[in-house]
Structure formats: structure tokens, C-alpha cells
Backbone:
């Protein structure tokens, strides 16, 4: 499934059913509100606003798809679109990157 | 004297006022939908480097 660009948000392409990982040049720092990501290449910061999205991002590399990372982190089906959009935002800013399927 | 730049590692949050109802189920969906990720760039900030 890909993000629908007609939904009013940014026109992002993100495939929940592909394997993803945190970019090599991104540092993840847990914070009380979730986490802070810093990309040493783009010098951008991203705030993850809760512990669940942090768990998803941190576990991306351990799962065959982003969808399975979401499910393992306890994301309910109804919330998957929101997490898909969040991951699409992170992909757009190169905080996460698609990896080769294993 | 050394000056240090400090970045407050706290994202912007909406201010709650006393006249808002306590339970607004739609708010939860709105928060989940829009506030999972917030992005900023530190390019151009003085004193960061």
C-alpha cells in the first residue's frame, strides 16, 4: 500500500510493505516525549512524538516490512494510515531509507 | 567566557485552555494523525556549530 497523495497531506510515496531502516547518518536520541532524530547529512531534526513510533522506527531494520514493524510495536490497524504517513515523512526527509529485501 | 548554544529538545505542543472539553475523542485521532512526526531544520541557526 502506498500513501495516497490526494489525502490532503504532502505527496509522498511510501510503501509499508517494503523493508526499511534508519539511515546510517541518523542518530536517534530517546526523549520523554518520544525521540529526537538528527541527520548528520541534511542537518535536519525530526521529533517522534510518542514511544510507539519510536519503537517502530528503531525496529524497522529487524522486520521484513514496515507494516510488520508497526504490528510488532502494537500499532492498531486503525492507526496504520497515520503511522504510514509518519514513516513517509521520515522517508521524505531521509531519516529512514529503503533497504534491500533479505 | 564560553558561550554555548542550547537547543531545547522539546517539540512544539498545543496550549490547552481551561474552556476546552476534557474528553474529545476526535482529538485523539487528530493527534495520532498529524503529530507523530514533527520536523525542523537547524540550518541558519546561530551558535549551533
Residues:
Amino acid at each position: 500500500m502506498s500513501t495516497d497523495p490526494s489525502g490532503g497531506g504532502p505527496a509522498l510515496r511510501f510503501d509499508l510493505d517494503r523493508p526499511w531502516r534508519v539511515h546510517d547518518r541518523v542518530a536517534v536520541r530517546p526523549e520523554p516525549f518520544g525521540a529526537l532524530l538528527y541527520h548528520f547529512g541534511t542537518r535536519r531534526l525530526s521529533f517522534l512524538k510518542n514511544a510507539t513510533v519510536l519503537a517502530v522506527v528503531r525496529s524497522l531494520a529487524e522486520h521484513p516490512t514496515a507494516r510488520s514493524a508497526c504490528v510488532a510495536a502494537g500499532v492498531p490497524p486503525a492507526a496504520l494510515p497515520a503511522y504510514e504517513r509518519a514513516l513517509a515523512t521520515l522517508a521524505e526527509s531521509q531519516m529512514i531509507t529503503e533497504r534491500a529485501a533479505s | 567566557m564560553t558561550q554555548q548554544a542550547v537547543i531545547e529538545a522539546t517539540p512544539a505542543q498545543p496550549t490547552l485552555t481551561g474552556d476546552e472539553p476534557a474528553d474529545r475523542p476526535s482529538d485523539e485521532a487528530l493527534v495520532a494523525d498529524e503529530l507523530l512526526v514533527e520536523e525542523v531544520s537547524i540550518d541558519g541557526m546561530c551558535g549551533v556549530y
Notes: The first strand of chain A starts at residue 20 and ends at 22. Residues 12-94 of chain A form one domain. The CA atoms of residues 59 and 69 of chain A lie 6 Å apart.
